[in-house]
Design goal:
The protein contains 36 helices and 13 strands. The chain has 737 residues and is mostly helical. Among the domains are: 4-93, Recoverin, domain 1, CATH 1.10.238; 407-493, Tetratricopeptide repeat domain (Serine Threonine Protein Phosphatase 5, Tetratricopeptide repeat); 498-671, no CATH class; 675-735. A hairpin with a 3-residue loop joins strand 1 and strand 2. Helix 10 (206-223) runs antiparallel to helix 11 (228-244) and helix 15 (307-320) packs antiparallel against helix 16. The chain starts with 6 loop residues before the first helix and ends with a helix. GO terms for molecular function: calcium ion binding.
């Protein structure tokens, strides 16, 4: 949790360590020594050092004192902006704080709050002994004396709760150090971050009920303060203490009360957003971060330095909703405002990778690593992006670098195992999955992949053992939850509906813009298009929607935005999407025609230009039949033809087996026939209608779809030592046997 001593005091000690001439500034030579010293495992070239120093001195020019260099306040600001990790650097340098300023408050044996606080210490002494650095921060700390007393009382209430729950074995800790860091800014200024160990409090029972009652008394004291400002100070402090003890629900109550008291203050909205995010409420987190952003932007210079952190957290909340393209925009804003914000660059790279923009992802991740060479998570995602680009050997090297930096990095080990599987290096893949299981013994996907890799390596007996272990693991509670989600999802449609598409055209307010050639069009940026897609695919869960956006970005937007401008002709996009929406085929064609008609170039008429129709058909072929269509895009026949085309003429062109969208009939067969291949059979695990092969268990007579069979899933009601399956391509084949 919070390390003892003031964060600003740590920065001061680092500053003093490298201010060799004691002139109150760090010149380029002294800054270079600092950068090298806090990264002992990294060998910087002169070019890298100079680039880092140029960036720091340019970004923080207001804190440069002539020839003296960067002031203490400037160094503190670099850490506040996320350009470095104070605790990591302080430890790397082997520095120590003054013990008089960092010793904790001694504990008394009395259970009375008043008695426990009566240690004979003056208020100033209490302040010096605060374990959390935020409390004495000039911008984010405690302002009123009575607030200090409330914080002391709350600390003692929490100590009693922790002692009782620990004694009864109710308090649980989960080590999160093995996973990739989310990278989000938890604080708005000097403060320590949440511990790598997540604490889970037991909220049932008398001890927790008593804690809530005592907390209510403290909140009433805050509400009864002499002024609105003091009440705000009290609720913010209570929320901060609760947050640091990972009592997020209770902390949220305090921050929301602080929002009511001072609605235009950035801090309570930001912290309420953090609480919502930790609690898995991404939509609510996004709304609070937007309020914090609005307050910061309207507050002038007072909160300007906090914008990068707000942008980062807003982006992460959007990712939680599946809105990755939108998240990219905020990560970019954070990186522009603070070029040394390595977390913003890492998150930008990871998000770009998530939507299939591998080259841009590699660039952002390499920049993050340039600033922070020991950033294991950035190395891991860079390797994944390189794999996406087909640079597999380099990807292996970068994955290995991530593992060298953090030997128990589950994501890097698991993904490297997958890469080895793709390359047919099954023995190496098996080794990676074994290392994953050493860190995370219940990682059933790693266990299953280990079985597959052992099978590929020819170690059949070991593969069988691994597979049995994987099957045992799939009975875990979280997988039952996932299956329940799939059952619910099955009740809904999972495809874009034509009526929703038409509604977007009718109700959508898209301004007309002009391309370089002066042609009017309704073009929008990709993040805005993502918002429209979210409405069109509203039944999809965030992770499923993110996958859909990636596919659309890779297959459709990359063709529509060939120039890489980041903008898309919305009418053409709707027309391209219409053929694969749900609905009768003739209606799909009509909506496609209407989408072309909706474009400004055809406004006010009932016909479309032939040149647009020709381009549309060629775009369809380039997107859905890329083996034929890409070359056709280079030779657009009839491009200078300015004549108009009616709907009936458009249908003739669309249905032309040679030059039209000839795969439409095949598409319809796939949509209808394939679903009926196995009659009314549904998978006994996910409850989806079985498409493709059906796997029937011959003893218990349940059936599995391709996906569940390949993942080794079985219904929880059937527990057998061994399962025997037969594969049926269709029901006629099943009846023959």
């Amino acid at each position: 949790m919070a390390s003892r001593g003031s964060r600003s005091e740590k920065v001061k000690r680092i500053f003093q360590q490298f201010d060799g001439n004691h002139d109150g500034g760090l010149n380029r030579e002294e800054m270079a020594a600092l950068v090298v010293s806090v990264n002992p495992r990294v060998k910087f070239s002169d070019e890298q050092i100079n680039a880092i120093l140029d960036e720091v001195f340019r970004t923080y020019s207001e804190f440069i004192d002539g020839e003296k260099g960067l002031t203490y306040e400037g160094l503190l600001r670099t850490y506040d902006d996320g350009a470095g990790d104070v605790d990591r650097d302080f430890d790397a340098l082997g520095l120590e704080l003054n013990l008089d300023e960092t010793k904790g408050i001694s504990e008394a044996s009395s259970s009375s709050i008043a008695d426990e606080r009566g240690l004979g210490l003056g208020l100033e002494s209490h302040k010096k002994q605060r374990t959390a650095a935020w409390a004495i921060s000039p911008n984010h700390g405690i302002v009123f004396d009575d607030t200090w007393k409330m914080v002391d009382d709350l600390d003692l209430v929490l100590k009693r709760l922790k002692a009782k729950q620990a004694k009864e074995g109710k308090l649980r800790n989960d080590n999160l150090d093995a996973y990739s860091d989310a990278g989000w800014s938890r604080e708005l200024g000097p403060s320590t971050e949440i511990s790598d160990k997540r604490v889970f409090w037991e909220e049932s029972g008398n001890d927790y009920a008593l804690f809530v009652k005592e907390l209510g008394v403290l909140r009433s004291r805050a509400d009864g303060a002499r002024s609105r400002e003091e009440a705000f100070d009290g609720h913010m402090a209570i929320g901060r203490v609760l947050y640091e003890h990972q009592l997020f629900k209770e902390a949220l109550v305090s921050f929301k009360r602080a929002c009511e008291l001072q609605p235009v203050d950035v801090r309570p909205h930001f912290r309420a957003g953090n609480c919502h995010y930790v609690l898995g409420k991404h939509k609510e987190a996004k709304e609070e971060f937007l309020l914090a952003l609005e307050a910061a932007e309207s507050g002038g210079n007072q909160w300007g330095y906090l914008l990068p952190q707000i942008y980062v957290n807003l982006g992460i909340a959007l990712e939680g909703e599946g809105m990755v393209l939108s998240a990219c925009e905020y990560y970019r804003e954070a990186a522009i405002l603070c070029p040394t914000h390595f977390r913003a660059l890492k998150l930008l790279g990871s998000a770009l990778f998530g939507v299939g923009e591998y080259r841009a992802a590699v660039k952002a991740l390499e920049e993050a690593i340039f600033i922070k060479p020991d950033y294991a998570d950035a190395h891991c995602d860079l390797a994944s992006a390189l794999h996406g680009m087909g640079e597999d050997e380099r990807a292996i090297e970068v994955f290995q670098k991530a593992i060298d930096l953090k030997p128990g990095h589950v994501d890097a080990l698991y993904n490297l195992g997958g890469l080895y599987m793709d390359l047919g290096r099954f023995q190496r893949a098996s080794e990676m999955y074994t290392r994953v299981l050493a860190v995370w013994p219940n990682h059933w996907r790693a266990q299953l992949n280990k079985a597959v890799s052992l099978l590929g390596a020819g170690e059949t007996e070991d593969a069988k053992k691994a597979l049995k272990e994987a099957l045992k693991m799939t009975n875990r509670v979280e997988l039952h939850d996932a299956i329940s989600h799939l059952k619910q999802l099955q009740k809904k449609k999972g495809r874009c509906d034509l009526e929703l598409l038409k509604k977007e055209m009718i109700e959508g307010d898209v301004p007309v813009s002009y391309s370089g050639s002066g042609i009017p069009e309704k073009s929008i940026r990709k993040p805005t298009l993502e918002e429209i897609l979210r409405r069109l695919l509203n039944v999809l869960k965030p992770e499923t929607f993110q996958g859909a956006v990636k596919a659309i970005n890779e297959r459709i937007l990359s063709v529509l935005d060939e120039a890489g401008s980041g903008r898309v002709d919305l009418g053409m996009f709707f027309a391209v999407l219409a053929p694969i929406c749900s609905g009768p085929p003739e209606k799909r064609k009509r909506v496609a025609f209407d989408a072309l008609l909706w474009r400004p170039v055809n406004e006010g008429i009932s016909q479309i230009k032939k040149v647009d129709a020709v381009r549309y058909i060629k775009l369809l072929r380039a997107i859905y039949v890329p083996s034929q269509g890409v070359s056709e895009m280079l030779e657009v026949h009839g491009e200078m033809d300015a004549s108009l085309m009616s709907y009936s003429e458009f249908l003739v062109m669309f249905d032309d087996p040679d030059w039209g969208f000839g795969i439409m009939s095949t598409l319809l067969k796939l949509e209808t026939g394939d679903r009926n291949r196995h009659g009314h059979h549904v998978c006994s695990v996910c409850r989806y209608p079985i498409i493709g092969s059906r796997f029937k268990e011959m003893k218990s007579h349940f059936s599995l779809c391709n996906q569940c069979y390949s993942e080794g899933k079985v219904p929880s009601t059937y527990k057998l030592e061994e399962y025997r399956f037969k594969e049926y391509g269709n029901e006629a084949e099943a009846n023959e046997r």
